[in-house]
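Its record is retained below.
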Amino acid sequence: MKSAIVDYHKDEENHWVARLNCGHFQHVRHNPPWTNRPWVITLEGRQSMLGQELSCKKCDAGAEPDY
């Protein structure tokens, strides 16, 4: 299922996590070559992705919201 990014926070290891409108959290790391998300590095990049949809595996699995 696709869910839109509504906000971000950092986890205890200082990695960026997106808050999705479905109530789940999803890490949004820039970790080349496996994950190429250079937009996550800057505030402007993160703000530009607000409203963009990510595939939410937690929704697909029927998981309870993270918040």
